[in-house]
Amino acid sequence: MKTEDLIIIDSEANQNYSLESILNKVIQGDALQILKKIPDNSADLVFIDPPYFLQLPRKKLKRWNVKTDVEGVEDEWDKFVSFEEYDEFIKTVLLEMKRIMKDNATIWVISTYHSIFRIGKIMQDLGYWILNNIIWAKTNPMPNWLGVRFTNATETMIWATKNKKEKKYFFDKVKAKEFGIGKVGANLWLIPLCTGKERLKDENGKKLHATQKPQELLRRIIQTTSKEGDIIFDPLAGMGTTGFVAKALKRQFIMIEKEKKYTEGIRRRFQESPVLKENKIRKEIE
Ligand SMILES: C[S@@+](CC[C@H](N)C(=O)[O-])C[C@H]1O[C@@H](n2cnc3c(N)ncnc32)[C@H](O)[C@@H]1O
User: Fold this and answer.
1) I need a labelling partner for 232 at 20 to 30 A (CA). Which of 18, 157, 183, 249 fits?
2) Mean pLDDT score of the chain, rounded to an integer?
3) Residues paired with residue 207 on neighbouring β-strands, in sequence order
4) How far apart are CA 257 and CA 246, in angstroms?
C-alpha cells in the first residue's frame, strides 16, 4: 500500500481540519490541540486506549527466579504528576470526543484497574451512558513476578453512548453471539496478548510499543458496533491498531498520535503488512 500521504504533521498553521482532509489519515501531534480542530458530528465509533498512569516503582522490577528485568510501561507518555492531572487529561479528551461523535455514535475506553474506575466516573459525570463493561481476559498474562498479589489478567472496556436518551446506536447481535459466552454473547472475551509476528519490533528486535493491542480485540469491537463505511476515531493511536483493523474491515478511520517513532511504526505497518482479510485477523484463541 502507498503510504506517503498517510501521516499529517499538525502545526499551528492548520487552524481547522475538514473531515475529508483527515479521513484515513494519522495526525501526528498533541491530541489536546488537534481535537479542537476536528469538526462536530464526525465519528460513528470511537476507541480510546489512554495512558494507564501505572506509577511504576523507580527501581527496575526483577523477576524473582531468573533476575531479569520485567518490561512494564515506562514511557514518558504514561507519566502524570498526580491523579488530578491525569483526570484533567482524560476529561479534556472525553469532552472533545462528545462533540466529535455523531449523536448515535458509541465510544469504547479501555484500561486496567489503575485508572478504569476514575475513567468510568468521569464518563458518567460528563453524561455518557454506559452500555457495558467488557472484560478482556488475557490467556497469556504477565505473571505477578513478586508473588505478592494475584496476577492481573484482565483489562476493562467501557462501551457507552453520548447520553442516556440515545437508543439508535448500532449493535450487531449476531456477531456478538460469536464472541461472548452463552446465547446472547456475554461481556467476557478471552484473547491472548499481542505477540509473535503481529507485534511490531524496532531495529533491535525490541517491542516498538509497550501496549500494542491485539487485532482480535479491535476486530470484535469494530464488527459488533460499526457498519462498513463508518468513520472510526482513535485519538491516542499508538501503533494504529484501530485504523489498521478498521481498514481491513472496510471502515474508514481517523487517528492521532503524538510520538513520531509510533507514527513511523504505523506507516511501516500499513506498508509492509499484507492487507488483512477478515478471517486472517482472528488469531487462534487458546
Ligand atoms: C496505550 S497507548 C495506545 C496503544 C494502541 N491502542 C495500540 O494498539 O498500539 C496510548 C498512546 O497515546 C499516545 N499519547 C499520549 N498522550 C498523547 C497526546 N496528548 N496526544 C497524542 N497522543 C498521545 C502515546 O504516545 C501512546 O502511544
Assistant:
1) 183
2) 90
3) 201
4) 17
* pTM of the entire predicted model: 0.93
Go through 175-185 and write b for each residue having 16 or more CB atoms within 10 A of its CB, e for each that does not: ebeebbeeeeb
Cell 455514535 -> residue: 105
Residue whose CA is at the smallest distance from ligand 1 atom 14: 236
Distance from the alpha carbon of residue 234 to the mean position of ligand 1, in angstroms: 9
Check if 216 has its Cβ closer than 6 Å to any atom of ligand 1: no
CATH 3.40.50.150 correct for 7-281: yes
Q: Is 223 in the pocket of ligand 1 (CB under 6 A)?
A: no
Q: Name residue, grid cell 483526570.
A: 87
Q: What is the pLDDT of residues 29-47, one digit of tens each?
A: 999 999 999 999 999 999 9
Q: What is the pLDDT of residues 118-173, one digit of tens each?
A: 999 999 999 999 999 999 999 999 888 888 899 999 999 999 999 999 999 999 99
147 CB burial (10 A radius; 0-12, 13-18, 19+): exposed
Residue spans of the domains in the chain: they are 7-281
Give Cα separations from 167 to 161, 223, 230 (angstroms).
Answer: 8, 19, 18
Range 171-187 average pLDDT: 89
Task: Order the strands of the 25-28 sheet from edge to edge.
Answer: 7-9, 25-28, 252-257, 231-234, 43-48, 101-111, 154-161, 129-137, 188-190
